[in-house]
Design a protein that fits this description.
The protein is an alpha+beta fold and about 475 residues long. Among the domains are: about 5-65, no CATH class; about 175-380, Nucleotidyltransferase, domain 5, CATH 3.30.420. The protein has 15 helices and 16 strands. Strand 2 and strand 3 form a beta hairpin. Helix 2 packs antiparallel against helix 3 (about 100-115) and helix 12 packs across helix 13 (about 385-410). It is flat and about 105 Å long.
């Protein structure tokens, strides 16, 4: 399509040419000529870079376009990514020991963004990164759609590095024998229970696959995971999981007698492995054992009554717990296992001789870790392979569990749910005026959340007593 004569007649610098572009070829750019080349004895001009445009019948050079100034006002999301970065920056260092510098930065930034913006898609990562304070903390991380696609292709090809990353996490545990190994059935209902935590657990949908994962009962943080086809944790699945991540000990949170048998068979090769199986009050092992009354309480939680007894003639022990506070009526007993023994009471069978506090610590955090993994894997759609998306969701689960622990330690989960705290953090932004970042005015409720997490220093207000001062 030829250039109109009135466009070519517009006054412009010498040694330039007008080029039409756009879908309808109705936009015109001005290119400079950088030289000539000899093609078959003919001298063909070489087009150089674009130096301007023709707009409304006038030549507009690029130099006249306004460029962003360092003194422009910039507004970015601050509190949510800042809280995630402060409590999970060591994960970035762990990634750098296995992956390259560029890939580790990309993986960590994606994990933080997925934890702060639930359900974010690949083509939204760049805008979320540039619109948040993460671009100030970790500048220059490429997160365009093509860069994320290349990263996922790289993660698909480097599967052994993901295994090594999780093996390192297992090796860094404070006490490997406290590692809890669980199975979580995939939920097809689409329900996400984490935003309402710590509320009553919801119902699950149909299961067509299981996710075997392990977590640290002390920190309630997922350590490693792997997906398997099937509906129950059998000997083959448990053996492959233990061998893949070089697990030397732990306790298997069995949901059925077959899972407990699989744990006993696996303990032949790994003596430090044991199982924990929830029972009904009318189960045969309970009937054979004379269970005393609830005479003691947990040292770290006096609202939980506990007891322990050895099954006669076998190397098995029974542990039972009952909640006496208001938490018993709020579904807290459901956190321990799927087969509760009545209002606020549960019974467990195990081949490990441990304290009631250790058993309770191992099983009480299972529901939370399952909720975190389900939250990070729900609502995500990706065009890439499952291995890459599963690894990125697992990293997001690590960051999310760190956030939950920070909220719990600060006492926020006593008054707010996890979702409400995240919404409060999402409303706290910072604005750059010149070279300084300042917090945008927030409500008193949001400021209370920021102060509880240590993001904003507490302001001590000294008020004078009411009334007239006393005469001396």
């Amino acid at each position: 399509m030829s250039i109109p004569a009135e466009i070519r007649a517009v006054e412009r610098p010498k040694n330039t040419v007008v080029v039409a572009y756009g879908r309808n070829k109705d936009k015109y750019a001005v290119r400079s000529r950088s030289g000539c080349r000899n093609v078959g004895g003919r001298r063909i001009p070489i087009e150089g870079p674009v130096i301007g445009h023709i707009v409304d019948g006038e030549y507009v050079p690029l130099e006249d376009r306004p460029e962003p100034s360092e003194h422009d006002i910039v507004l970015k999301d601050w509190a949510n990514v800042e809280a995630a970065f402060l409590c999970s920056s060591d994960v970035l260092l762990d990634l750098k020991t296995v992956y390259g510098q560029r890939e580790a930065m990309q993986m960590y930034c994606i994990a933080v963004l997925k934890a702060c913006y639930h359900g974010i898609e690949d083509d939204e990562l760049r805008n979320a990164y540039e619109g948040s304070f993460l671009s100030v903390r970790l500048p220059g991380v490429p997160l365009t759609r093509n860069n994320v696609s290349k990263l996922c292709d790289y993660l698909e090809e480097s599967g052994p590095k993901a295994v090594q990353f999780m093996r390192d996490r297992v090796a860094r545990l404070r006490d490997p024998h406290d590692l809890a190994i669980c199975e979580a059935a995939s939920d097809s209902s689409g329900a996400d229970p984490l935003p309402d935590y710590p509320g009553r657990p919801g119902s699950k949908g149909a299961a067509n696959a299981i996710t075997v994962f392990s977590y640290d009962p002390r920190t309630l943080e997922p350590v490693c995971f792997k997906n398997y086809p099937g509906k129950t944790l059998d000997t083959a699945i448990l053996g492959d999981f233990i061998e893949t991540y070089a697990i030397k000990g732990g306790i298997v949170m069995a949901d059925s007698r077959s899972s407990a048998n699989a744990a006993r068979k696996a303990s032949r090769n790994e003596p430090g492995l044991s199982y924990l199986l929830p029972l009904r009050r009318n189960a045969a092992p309970v009937d054979r054992c004379s269970m005393p009354c609830f005479g003691s309480v947990l040292k770290d939680d006096p609202s939980v009554e506990c007891g322990k007894a050895k099954v006669s003639g076998r190397r098995r022990w029974l542990y039972w717990f009952r909640y006496t506070g208001t938490e018993a009526g709020e579904g807290r007993a459901c956190h321990l296992g799927p087969k509760s023994a009545g209002p606020g009471a549960v019974v467990f069978e195990s081949d490990r001789d441990a304290s009631c506090e250790g058993i309770h610590r191992s099983c009480s955090g299972r529901r939370l870790v399952e909720s975190v993994l389900g939250h990070c894997c729900s609502g995500t759609r990706t065009r890439h392979g499952s291995a890459a998306s599963e690894l990125l969701c697992f990293l997001s689960a690590i960051v999310t569990s760190r956030l939950v622990r920070a909220f719990s330690e600060s006492g926020l989960l006593g008054d707010y749910s996890y979702g409400k705290v995240m919404r409060c953090l999402g409303r706290a932004r910072k604005v750059r005026m010149g070279k300084e970042w300042k917090l945008v005015g927030t409500t008193a409720r949001d400021l209370k959340v920021l102060q509880a997490l240590g993001l904003v220093p507490r302001v001590i207000t000294i008020r004078n007593p009411r009334g007239r001062p006393k005469k001396k």
